[in-house]
């Protein structure tokens, strides 16, 4: 299994996961044209994507999903709450293959990848994140969550790779350009994880098998890569080359999970 980021941040998010002949796209926060350009940079033909998984209905995660799914005939998976909320804002194309994720379903098998959706606290209709398993390897994503719940800790135990939100530094947020109302939203229990929260999560889970830790959704106004790296290395001092920080405007390398 391997994965790469096509972009991560408040202006757009998309992540690609591949195992064998199966390719999944998580979120589509870019226009179809821009997503096609980014996919080309990592050597992937859009028509070879097997499913599109949406975490929630905020524009930086869903902006191009409707058009992309329609153009390439890709099944679109999202929670029922996300599908309903988005339909109320902008109707789904009639020929898009919508696959509702039921709260009663524990996992989904798509090709060679088992996908486990799990709930997170965020200020959207019915947000979720995903755990991916293939060939006895486990990779999870956790972004757009305002706090760490016991359920999250349970899901993220014993991973081989983790994509973890490090959205803001609290000091930079409180002294930054955002008005108080937006600061409260970002820092709230249904907002975004700060650097210290991310580090505390790492201290709460088994990281012995962690081959790769990727920090993402890093605010360009309320955070700095040095602050992110400093907090995460406090939690796992021997991270060394296992740590990578994602950027908004460029695709990442492929991260292999062996």
TrEMBL record:
Membrane-spanning parts: none
Xref: SMART domains: Lactamase_B
SUPFAM superfamilies: Metallo-hydrolase/oxidoreductase (SSF56281)
Assigned keywords, A-Z: Hydrolase
Domain of life: Bacteria
Metallo-beta-lactamase domain segment(s): 11-168
Keyword Hydrolase: yes
Molecular function via GO: hydrolase activity
One Pfam family of this chain: Lactamase_B_2
Protein's name in the database: Metal-dependent hydrolase
């Amino acid at each position: 299994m391997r994965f790469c980021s096509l972009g991560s941040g408040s202006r757009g998010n998309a992540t690609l996961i591949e195992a064998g002949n199966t390719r999944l796209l998580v979120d589509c926060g870019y226009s179809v044209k821009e997503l096609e350009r980014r996919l080309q940079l990592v050597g992937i033909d859009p028509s070879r994507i097997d499913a599109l998984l949406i975490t929630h209905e905020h524009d930086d995660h869903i902006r191009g999903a409707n058009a992309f799914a329609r153009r390439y005939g890709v099944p679109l998976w999202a929670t029922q709450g996300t599908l309903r909320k988005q339909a109320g804002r902008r109707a789904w194309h009639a020929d898009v293959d919508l696959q509702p994720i039921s709260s009663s379903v524990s996992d989904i098998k798509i090709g060679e990848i088992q996908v486990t959706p799990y709930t997170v606290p965020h200020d959207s209709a019915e947000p979720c994140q995903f755990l991916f398993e293939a060939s006895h390897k486990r990779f999870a994503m956790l972004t757009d969550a305002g706090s760490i719940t016991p359920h999250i800790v349970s899901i993220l135990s014993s991973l081989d790779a983790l994509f973890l939100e490090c959205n803001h530094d609290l000091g930079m947020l409180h002294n930054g350009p955002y008005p108080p109302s937006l600061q409260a939203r970002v820092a709230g229990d249904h907002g975004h994880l700060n650097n210290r929260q991310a580090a505390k999560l790492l201290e709460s889970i088994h990281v012995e098998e962690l081959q790769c830790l990727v920090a993402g959704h890093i605010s360009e106004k309320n955070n700095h890569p040095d602050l992110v790296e400093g907090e995460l290395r406090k939690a796992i001092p021997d991270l060394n080359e296992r740590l990578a920080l994602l950027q908004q405007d460029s695709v990442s390398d492929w991260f292999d999970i062996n």
